[in-house]
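Complex record, two chains
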Amino acid sequence: MIFDYVVIGGGVIGTAIFNKLVRKGKTCVLLEREPDLATGATKANSGLIHAGFDAESGSLKAKFNVRGNELTENLAKELKVPFKRTGAVVVGNDLEKLKALLERGEKNGVRGLEIVEGDKLKSLVPNLKEDIKYALYAPSAGLISPYMFAIALAEEGVINGGVCKLSFEIDRVEQKDGVFEIFGNNEVLQARKVINSAGAGFNEVSKLFKTEEFPIKFRRGEYIVLDKSDFVKLTVFPLPTALGKGILATPTVDGNILLGPTAEDIEAFNTETTECGIDKIISYINSTFNNVPLNKNIRQFSGIRVSCGEDFVVTESKLNPNVILIAGINSPGLSSAPAIAEYVVEELLKEHSEDKPMIARKGYTCEPAGKIICKCEKVGEKEIENAINAPIPATTVDAVKRRVRAGMGRCQGGQCMLDICKLIAKNLNIELEEVKKESAKSNIMFKGGF
Amino acid sequence: MVDVVVIGGGPAGMSASLKAKQQGASVLLIDSEPRLGGILNQCIHNGFGLKHFKEELTGPEYASRLEKEVKEAGIEIMLNSYVNFIQKNMVYVITPNGQEKIDCKAIVLCAGARERSAGEIYLKGKRLAGVYTAGSVQKMINFYGKLPGKRAVILGSGDIGLIMARRLTLEGVKVEAVLEIMEHSSGLRRNIRQCIEDFNIPLKFSHTVTRVVGKDRVEGVYYAQVDENRKPILSTEKLLECDCLLLSVGLIPENSLLPESVKRNKFVIVDDERQTSEEGIFISGNVLHIHDLADNATEEGEIAGKFAGLYSQGKLEKFDKVNLSFSKNISYCMPSLINKKNEGKFTIYMRANANFLKKNILVKCGNEVIAKKFCIGITTGEMQEIEVEYSKVKDDIFVDIEE
């Protein structure tokens, strides 16, 4: 069969476009080279649906962010992905800068913005240091699990007729009579049009399709994750700088606290955490807040934000009109995803038909949930098995973790990781030593007796 | 309705059940795993039971002896069941078939401890496959017969790390080094001798891992000497090639089930009967403080079980309590409150802050020394204990290691 579309890259942008194309009744295949979706920038960011006051007015970022924010709430509800509209504040003493942000936000179409101080600020951010006097309050900002959002978008797409291929490495591409032939994993896929949403792998994909390559830069952001607490009840930003929105403190949609990110330009894709980065977060957070519950620290991670220029690139290729190029999706990429998908599908690909009604995804939770496997997050055996046997199966330990939170708690899988390996092996009918943590070569254990 | 619910079927929980039963109470023992024994089941090495059973046993042997006693005593057992929530006289449990509410008169929490994770020690570098807690590798080898790699580095010289250094070596894995950030080990001396020295495994004190590197799995760790503030001295940083890193960096009591209202300082505050500030909720074993030996956890479980049993029968006598405090030479003492009883003895368990040679442990009440014990060697790695007669406790007491 010849697919109408192939979407390359299973991050939140690729999955949102895939989902939208399925809604338009198109035949569509989503390709991801890793064993799971959402393993690049999508898995390691702040998990925020920004209000949209930060982006330069008139930019794609401003347009997609504000529209994406509007679209996310309903979409998340439909996908059964938790979303919370908790709001955000930008705190600081430079009232002029805060007012300038407010004006920009209003120009971008953000609703409900106001400058707050005194008791109102205190009630919004009880742990804020007393010497910080003002804040811009944006009630429309929200929280979502970025990886669950992407996974659910793709899952719904698959339930409704889309095809998703994981661990799919493209070897080469040919184009015959207006049809792309994509060779990889010992098969050939045929499709009429291509969407390159490969994120950090954008240029590699562009090479295969002989389309434009862009100078892509990497910026690393390190984070600290704290166990669940009510240290902050909404997202707290400092005033933005040239390097980004600064180190924030936010709850996650699951109730953890996230501190970070740092912003460091790096040469190559490298997700190490560093002494310097972690120290920077701790000292900044301690200078802004009282009662920081750093004793609840459970994890650090770093995410890579790719950029090519100031704004997003979302365009048709000039070298091959059948390829859509999406590059440089850094913040607010997650917030913009549904709007980028809408724009790509309706404006660039001219798929103007009404969205078809979609069969809803089931999710993984169930009652009774079976024997509790992850004690910290109280995840039952049946829930883990539901994730492993889902329309897009979770075949790795991290894939299970992203879907049902097993291993996300205070012991970070110390107690349950092996039990999860066992469930994966049992359900996929593979040997224990074949179970991976995340990537194709990330085996967790080996046969004894070497 | 049951008189006493014991949560956790390890050595503390099983012995607590037995003692509660001996007081005439009906007892329900709940465990989240498919069999009783807790972590003992994965500790296939010997060295257990010298104190409690007066003979040397492996972990599973020790567990099965207690298990047999529990079964013979007619204690009701509920397996594969996770306690979700407790409050006074009530335990909410998630069984494989759904949720249940159990009414009871007393609760003994014996939920054990968990291992400190990579995140909790801010381990830098990549978060790769091949980084494990030492206990999960113990389970991997002893339960599943699998190995974590071929060349291991162990961070931390707690007992589990030391035991695993030997276990890995016996399984043909090369242990490149055991790195300890402190100047001394927090493990037992016998484990350093039998697991490290006997196998010529390099044990480097005042060293830590600075960075984990690799692509999909661990390919090496950078490590460095640390200064007096335990900060790495970067000029001493070196790469050590390995394919797995085991963390033995401490155990944390898993006491999150206790209601918020239970008073705590560094530990949960209990009296000599192991009752918390919430009447009817008792706690013992590693969930209270970390024991060196299963035998000690068993002993503490017996205390908690006995008094929980009496409490459930309305037979627990009430006394005034005094406080126990201690000097700067001591890291902590257990318990922190003492009932002013007239007869019998109680034991104070304590851990020193530094190593001492030929010193006395003193227990004072005012200016009077009410107990004294001479110790040839006191190390931070080994729990000390001293018996005190109740009748001598007139007021708050103070524990010290004589300078």
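Note: Chain A touches chain B through 48 residues (CB under 8 Å).
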